[in-house]
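Usage example:
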Amino acid sequence: MKLKDYLKELYHCFHCHLCNVGNWHELDEWVSICPTYAYFGFESFSAAGKIEIGRAFIQGKIKKPSSRMLQIIFGDLGCGACHSQCKDLTGLNIDHVEFFEELKTKLVEEGYGPLPKQADYARSIQRNHNPYWEKHEKRTSWLNSRIPKGGKIVYFVGCTSSYRTQEIARATVEILSASGVEFGIMDGEEWCCGSPLLRTGQRKLARDLAKHNLRALKDAGAEKVIFSCAGCYKTFKKDYPKLLGRTLDFEVLHTSEYFWNLIKEKKLRPRREEGIKVTYHDPCHLGRGTGLYDPPRQVLREIFGRYFVEMKRTKENAWCCGAGSGVKAALPDFAIWSATQRLEEAEKTGANILASTCPFCKRNLEDAEKKVKKGMEVRDLSELLSERLT
Ligand code: SF4
Ligand code: SF4
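Running the assembly step on the lines above writes:
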């Protein structure tokens, strides 16, 4: 959709501010839901404020965006909590996340964005196929066993687990191997999925990455591609078809749903672990982004039984960890603050472990834990499962 085509739906926003403080049907209190509004405190940082700014920009009332405006727009998390609240409570059909991404793309095309750190990781992606300024040749340095290249079932590792949270990649491989599934990885043919670019309006380079990855997976004969990263998963599942105007040649699965299927088929039999309390953080790209809420919970219940407990803000109402859409790179203090809020919420459940299903969430929550020392163990679902295989 072109940016100006959003105008009509943007006019429907009546500044009720329900998207800042959701009052969920099952609760009897108002709870903060928009991290940017909660942290920065001005209306311009709320969804309604960004809608107002975007509308003024489309209508040419803003001739030259100020640096403050760019910080507001490119500092948005794209977490989609506003969208859940707005559609649920007002019945309006504003697609906030899509609109914010479209607005960022237009600003980049006109030479106004993204923020410097977000442009910096784009340069790294261009040069190294990852946003971390790491050498492409080291992409599989986490591997501790030989895995075939390609095949019908492919595990797409993603940049964060290839370079920063390698324990997730190793745990995933361990689980897949234990289940007896024949699978491969893409080795040097795997490039960044493009999520950090799409979320910051840098669409042109993202399209090149999509073309490369799809071509490589086709050449590898992939029929099923499995992702341990919520960001990669959403990018393949939702963004690639839109970006390239076609359906994919293979099935796209997140590890949580694949693991759950393997458990149901009795190919995996995790050991029961009673007594350790675990709670679960829904990654925005997996939950609100693709609607995958239940499989991670089913796996956790299978292992921890009644010791799996929920936080107050879950599923559609989950609080964002604060890392996404290039925010961890550009606004690190805000990212850590958002993650700290989540740790505090997890702590209130009495849980010892905060589990998630996204390496990027894990990294940010772990960074916050190191800072505030709540004594919370931050783990990925794959780690918890791999440690309990029988
Ligand atoms: S809930 Fe919807 S209508 Fe109300 S302020 Fe937020 S975006 Fe606008
Ligand atoms: S996407 Fe998230 S951070 Fe952005 S306005 Fe909506 S709730 Fe706030």
